[in-house]
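User: Hey, quick favor. My workstation is busy. Could you predict this chain's structure for me?
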Amino acid sequence: MWHSHKAGVFSLRQGKVFSVCKDSLVMEEGVKYIVNAGSVGQPRDADNRACYCVYDTDEGKIEFRRVDYDMKKAGKKIMKAGLPPMLAERLKWGR
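Assistant: No problem, here it is.
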């Protein structure tokens, strides 16, 4: 099983997978896509903001959005839960 916290869109063409965007994309008819919405916490793409994506079914458009959140509070909750300290520390760096 594959697991990632990196936001992005990938397409499958002629049996090969290509990274096609990180911000927004209007999808082409007949092309298969894999969309990874990223991570609300614990991002791994060097952007420490929470990430999510919106899919406009009318336009066939995928748009990634980023929002700030209280990383100190999230870090304290991670520590209080007894999770490894590096999970709290990496929130600052997005890695």
